[in-house]
Fold:
Amino acid sequence: MVGDFSVGKTSLTQKFVNNVFSDKYLTTIGVKIDTAIVADTKLIVWDVAGRDSLSPINASYLVGAAGVVLVCDGSRASTVSDLLDIWNTVTERIGVVPAVVALNKADLPEWNISDEMYAAFDKQSWDVFPTSAKEGDNVKEMFEKLVNKLSSQVV
Ligand code: G3D
Ligand code: MG
Structure:
């Protein structure tokens, strides 16, 4: 799970692995590792904490990752454009791996994703899902798509 601080990495992970959403998550320390079985695949989810999910230390957690979930907060434009930089960090570190994008907080009325951003996303080999960790929308679909890409080795 990569993306800016407070975009919903932990909430999406917890919604998927435990199917609960709490408005009172404590900021996690370090990295939390969760597992979920999707079809015949065991998915091991690394949820890295801190203000910068790809600080040099955190970027080392990328090594060995089979794929990434790029998470942004659709109501905060900077977190959306940051995904392109984050993706560059990922590919420099581990190459092009299967990736899905969660445009999270889709339940919020403010939505700050420009047409340019959608066009930039279209150029990438990503599958993009508007998600809500709060209401559950598209969370399962997003993780299942990643697993599907991992199993079929489609980047
Ligand atoms: P992070 O792990 O990326 O840092 P968190 O982000 O999962 O800790 O979420 C940060 C804040 O956003 C939390 O609020 C959380 O409740 C909220 N949040 C996460 N996903 C959603 C969503 O889909 N919709 C809405 N409305 N809020 C969401 P607090 O207030 O606890 O900091
Ligand atoms: Mg977190």
